[in-house]
Amino acid sequence: MPNRTGPSRTASSQPLDHLVVATPDADHDLLAQLMVGEMALTRTDLKDASAAYDRAMLLSDDPHVAEQAAGMAIAIRDDAAAQRAIARWQALGAKPAELAQARAQLALGQGDTAEAQRQLEILTSSGDIDAWRQFGRVLVGGRDPAQSSNLLETLATPQRLPPGDAQAWLAMSELGDRLGRTAYAQQIADAAVKRFENADAYAWAAQLKYKAGDRKGAQAMFQKAIAKAPKNIRLRLAYASLLGQNGDYASAGKLLDNGPQNADTFQLRAALAAHANDTRTLSRLYNQLQHSPDDVRNDSAYLLGQLAEMQGQKDDALKWYGQVPDDDEHAFDADLRSAVLLLELGRSAEAHAQLEEMQTDYLDQPAQLRRAYEVDAELYMREQQYAKAEAAYSRALQIAPDDPGLLYGRGLAYASGGQTDQAIDDLRRLLQIKPGDADASNALGFTLADANRDLPEAEQLIQTARTAKPNDPAVTDSWGWVQYRLGHLDQAEKALNSAWQSHKDADVGVHLGEVLWRQGKQEDARRVFDEVRKIDPQNTSLHDTLKRLNP
Question: How many other C-beta atoms lie within 10 A of the C-beta of residue 539?
């Protein structure tokens, strides 16, 4: 073989060394554009998302990409981009009904009612199974409610609505009601009742009549709905709610007593019985619910706890509250009630431990955290641990500064603990926030009277509370006490005796007993003090008063 000359080949030369792969730039990379669009959507940047999908649809043969591009362009009112996307979508094989829906949305956004009507006529005449649902979506998304309402009444007539689709008729009636076209909504509902005579039609007509103030007509329609579907829980609940709102708790309860039961029926039955103060029915419901199927019982753990409390069965209530799942809407309330029950059962340390755990669990939820601190403070008040109550209220006020309820509670805690100046500061601040508030006026007036200072102001404050709450025993007690401090013993006795007869509260009794004693009526005073001992043997006010009066 002849010798050949030329460049020598290296031993490392490989075929892939000479392979060049073409990589598209970002503007021509379909996947990149879709990712940009999705990321823009996650940060609710519709303008950037629309631009990305506008580029993506030109790179894709998927009609769904063009559909997405059209929807976004319409949403941001970019008419040119919307028209491009609709044309691309049509070229990729969009259904006529889909195109008509998009074009109607575009026309509505442009204020072109005639074109919107033409496209909606195409949509509703397409025979598409979802045509009327899409029609409703177009009108709901319209920017001009009057325009949408006029199109609804023009196109969704009894002559054009599908003759065999009851749900389409009811949906249009509901849309009319939503858009404020009450007469139209009622017209279509009445026509649906006449045509279909089914439970849903009767139930919707009943709701419209109720909204219009025709409770008797609503009741008649609900009765027909129930007759058509006697086991339909949803209908029975709706009708029972109507009866309950009319004050007919017995009929509502009787309606729900029969037929299938679930957690919602038990909940409403219990609410109706509670409104009627029907303790016998509440007891019966508790027994029924305990023996209901597992799924109903598990979904009703909070209600079971409430019913057990109503029966005075605190241990059982605690057990049921403990079974409320963490993801249940009543989980927080169940934990609060558990803490209260633990205290009532003499398990104070466990009660406060429960609330401390809740304060950790709800650290990132200010409303719940505030409430947990408040209940902790209320329990300390019951235990007469006023310093701890004040500290809990103060922590709650760090979360909700100047909260009226918390200021009121801390003011009482300060007053009960003998820190009069701090109590007065809180209660004065509360009255700055809520001028003339009866409870705050009474609390500040009593605190001043009890400290025997600023008595004219105290009398004026309590008089403000008396005007707002003339029959409130607590306010009457305050009035009697300030009269005592002012030296008006006869007026004081009259007011305090009235408060004592209205409500046998231990502190009121102590006040009355002291006034009677100062009047020289020691035997009458002793009888009142004896009654106070029976009500609250550990009452500190009684102990302090007796020590002062009869050393």
Answer: 18
Instruction: Tell me whether residue 83 is exposed, middle or buried, using C-beta atoms within 10 angstroms of its C-beta: 0 to 12, 13 to 18, 19 or more.
Output: middle
CA distance 392 to 337: 18
Residues 272-276: contacts with CB within 8 Å, 24+ apart?
Answer: 272/240, 272/244, 273/249, 274/310, 275/244, 275/249, 276/249, 276/250
Q: Using 50, 70 and 90 to split pLDDT, how confident is the model at 143?
A: confident
Among 14-23, 219-228, 422-431, 514-523, the minimum mean pLDDT is found in 14-23
Domain 454-551 has CATH 1.25.40.10: yes
Residue 21, pLDDT above cutoff 50:
no
Enter the tokens of residue 530.
């004896």
Instruction: Extract the tokens encoding 323.
Output: 């079974």
CA distance 83 to 98: 14
What pLDDT is recorded for position 246? Answer: 84
DSSP 270-283: HHHHHHTT-HHHHH
Express each pLDDT in 174-190 by its tens digit: 999 999 999 999 999 99
Distance in angstroms (rounded) separating the CA atoms of residues 204 and 66: 38
pTM: 0.73
pLDDT score of 379: 97
Copy the structure tokens of residue 408.
């009121």
| Assigned token pair, 38 | 């999705």
Alpha helices per DSSP H over 30-78:
30-42, 46-59, 63-75
Q: Tell me how far apart the alpha carbons of residues 461 and 419 are, in angstroms, rounded to a whole number.
A: 20
Which residues are CB-neighbours of 387 under 8 A, at least 6 positions away?
417
Range of lowest pLDDT (25-34, 290-299, 372-381): 25-34
Report the SS3 class of residue 497. Answer: helix
> pLDDT tier at 9 (50, 70, 90 boundaries)?
very low
Helices H, strands E: what count in the chain? 32, 0
Domain segments of the chain as ranges: 454-551
The confidence score (pLDDT) of residue 44 equals: 87
Task: Determine the distance from the C-alpha atom of residue 46 to the mean position of all C-alpha atoms in its chain, rounded to a whole number.
Answer: 31
CA 32, 33, 34, 38 torsion-angle sign: positive
Compute the radius of gyration of the chain from its Cα atoms.
37
